[in-house]
Each structure stands twice: as structure tokens, then as C-alpha cells.
């Protein structure tokens, strides 16, 4: 008798950069660098404003989906989950707010934690970290925009 191994869920393949959408914010097509070295995803948050509500701390901020353009800027709000110390790519530590929001990539919609950071000098408005990818995607470092540019 031949035993069959239980097959692992087939993971979608993504490239080293992809476009990510945020249904909760009605923002489509933010360029993201896929970074398996980063635990948590991060997005460029411009002009953050913090406030207290009955259910906790909230932050409103602008998302600029296009680099070097404020034309498509959108002001959004989210509940702050926590604040976390993050070591950036330049080795500097900073305390960042963490939110949870829905993301859409390659037809997969999922909730993920994301830190808010000032990424105006960076080439990509977003970093897609490994906790958002775990159990969903594998990375092909030789490809990019596998779901369309």
C-alpha cells in the first residue's frame, strides 16, 4: 500500500517587488518592495495625526501611492494596535505606530500588521515583510510585478 503525504497548501509566487492594494483605505497599486529580512510590513505615512477615541488611540495619515507625487494622496484613519521599536535598514532604531489593515496582493486578501514610517527618501512607498507573506507567498527574486505593473 502506498501512503500519500498530505500536500502543503500551494503558495502563490511573488516577485521581489509587487503592487499592493488596501481595500480598507480604497488605495490601489502601491509599489512594494518584498523584504523577507523585515519582520513587519511598513508603509510611507505622511502627516500623521494621533487622537484618542473611546476605543483607544487612532492615527490619521496620508498615503501617497505614487513616488514623487502628492496628486493621488489619500487621508486615511486606523486604530493604533501598539507602538514598536523597529530597526530600519540604516541601522537606526525608531518607535513606530503599528496598525492592522487588509491588504490585497495577487487576488489574495488578508489582514496584516503594518508600521507607519517616513519613507519619502526610499525608492518604494512600502515594504512587504515576512509576517504578511508567511503561509501565503513564496518569493522569486528574479521576477517582479507578477500580477501586473
Span between N and C termini? 49 Å
How many domains? The number is: 1
Count of separate DSSP helical elements: 1
**What is the highest CATH level, the class?**
Mainly Beta
What class would the helix/strand composition place it in? Answer: mainly beta
**Cα radius of gyration in angstroms:** 17 Å
Specify the CATH architecture.
Beta Barrel
How much helicity do the residues have?
under 10%
**Uncertain stretches:** 1-7
> How many distinct beta strands?
11
Could you give the order of strands across the largest sheet? 2-3-10-4-9-8-7-6-5
Order of helices and strands: EEEEEEEEEEHE
Pfam family, one: Zn_protease
Protein name: Retropepsin-like aspartic endopeptidase domain-containing protein
Domain Retropepsin-like aspartic endopeptidase: 14-146
Organism: Candidatus Lucifugimonas marina
Would you summarize the structure shown here?
The protein has 149 residues and is mostly beta strands. The protein has one helix at residues 130-133; strands at 12-15, 17-22, 27-34, 41-44, 46-53, 56-63, 74-87, 93-105, 108-117, 126-128, 137-140.
Please, could you describe this protein's structure?
- InterPro entries: Asp_endopeptidase, Peptidase_aspartic_dom_sf.
- This is Retropepsin-like aspartic endopeptidase domain-containing protein.
- It holds the Pfam family Zn_protease.
- Residues 14-146 form the Retropepsin-like aspartic endopeptidase domain.
- With 149 residues, this protein is mainly β.
- The chain has a single domain (18-138), classed as Acid Proteases (Cathepsin D, subunit A, domain 1).
- 3% of the residues lie in helices and 55% in strands.
- The protein has one helix at 130-133; strands spanning 12-15, 17-22, 27-34, 41-44, 46-53, 56-63, 74-87, 93-105, 108-117, 126-128, 137-140.
- Strands 2-3-10-4-9-8-7-6-5 form a nine-stranded mixed β-sheet. Strands 1-11 form a two-stranded parallel ribbon.
- A hairpin with a 4-residue loop joins strand 2 and strand 3.
- The protein is globular, with a radius of gyration of 17 Å.
- The protein starts with 11 loop residues before the first strand and ends in a 9-residue tail after the last strand.
Amino acid at each position: 500500500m502506498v501512503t500519500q503525504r498530505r500536500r502543503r497548501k500551494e503558495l502563490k509566487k511573488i516577485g521581489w517587488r509587487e503592487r499592493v492594494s488596501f481595500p480598507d483605505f480604497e488605495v490601489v497599486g502601491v509599489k512594494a518592495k518584498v523584504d523577507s529580512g523585515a519582520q513587519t510590513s511598513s508603509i510611507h505615512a505622511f502627516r500623521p495625526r494621533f487622537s484618542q477615541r473611546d476605543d483607544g488611540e487612532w492615527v490619521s495619515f496620508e498615503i501617497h501611492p505614487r513616488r514623487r507625487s502628492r496628486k493621488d494622496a489619500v487621508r486615511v484613519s486606523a486604530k493604533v494596535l501598539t507602538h514598536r521599536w523597529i530597526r530600519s535598514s540604516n541601522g537606526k532604531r525608531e518607535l513606530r505606530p503599528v496598525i492592522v489593515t487588509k491588504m490585497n496582493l495577487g487576488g489574495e486578501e488578508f489582514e496584516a500588521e503594518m508600521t507607519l514610517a517616513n519613507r519619502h527618501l526610499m525608492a518604494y512607498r512600502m515594504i512587504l515583510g515576512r509576517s504578511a507573506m508567511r503561509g501565503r507567498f513564496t518569493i522569486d527574486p528574479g521576477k517582479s510585478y507578477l500580477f501586473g505593473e
